[in-house]
Amino acid sequence: MSSRADVLSKYAGETVLAVGAHPDDLELAVGGTLARLSRSGARVVMAVLSIPNNLQVRRAEARKAAETLGCEVRLLTAGRCCRVEDLKNHELVGMIDGLVKELRPAAMFSHCLANLHLDHKLAYDACMASQRLGYFDLFCYSPTSCHQVHIPFQPQIYIDISTTIEAKMKAIRHHASQFEKRGLKTDHYRAASGQVGGIVGVDYAEGLEVVRMRLN
Ligand SMILES: [Zn+2]
């Protein structure tokens, strides 16, 4: 057992808001970090902006995955299939603003700019806009699209997820409609976390871009 202080305990007793455009984005990018935050005593709310298809199935998958990570899930458009780009900008901003006003998060996790998927970029813009409502730490997580992007993702901090990699992988596997049922394997997400871990000398890690962070 390490005697080093758990830096994520800074959020113990606080609420952390993680925003994803679609079910599975958060699990793929920051599943290990969110599980660690939950285990450190934070209330973690995973907000899913849209479910593009297969509504019932993907709703159930999102709920099971969040439970696996010890997080709450908010499906913001749970009553219908849509994409983020189907929402008017003011609706999208209003959704994120509403969550910030309700939850008063100590930290937010957002998509990053390094995305070609328009839904991800729209979600990023709405999260950035919510900074005007007051102070919270703000981080951007890695691209979740399977396409390589030419826009750089440049993480400055790395979260050791060696203790939560199994929860992350289980949460990803709950999205069977996106992987197993399409004949797609999920093992490479474990390998990717291992590669990121290698940068900072741990078994598994997730990188984050820091938009703003207060050091008390
Ligand atoms: Zn997505």
Task: Describe this entry's structure for a reader.
This protein is α/β, with parallel strands linked by helices. The protein has helices at residues 25-39, 55-69, 89-103, 118-129, 165-173, 187-200; strands at 15-20, 43-48, 72-75, 107-110, 137-141, 157-160, 205-212. The chain has a single domain, classed as Rossmann fold. Strand 1, helix 1 and strand 2 (43-48) form a beta-alpha-beta unit. Helix 1 crosses helix 5 (165-173) and helix 2 runs antiparallel to helix 5 (165-173). The model has no long low-confidence stretch (mean pLDDT 95). Residues 21-22, 25, 117, 119-120, 144 line the site of zinc ion (ZN). The site of zinc ion (ZN) has 7 residues, from helix 4.
Map the helices and strands.
Elements lengths: L14 E6 L4 H15 L3 E6 L6 H15 L2 E4 L13 H15 L3 E4 L7 H12 L7 E5 L15 E4 L4 H9 L13 H14 L4 E8 L4
Parallel strand pairs: 1-2, 1-4, 2-3, 4-5
Antiparallel strand pairs: 5-7, 6-7
Helix pairs in contact: 1-2, 1-5, 2-5, 3-4
The structure holds zinc ion.
The site of zinc ion has 7 residues, from helix 4.
Total discrete domains = 1
What is the strand tally? 7
Rg from Cα: 16 Å
The percent range for helix content is 25-40%
**Helix/strand class:** alpha/beta
Q: Give, in order, the helices and strands.
A: EHEHEHEHEEHHE
CATH topology: Rossmann fold
The number of helical runs is: 6
- Level-1 CATH class name: Alpha Beta
Identify the overall geometry: globular
Major β-sheet, in short? 7 strands, mixed
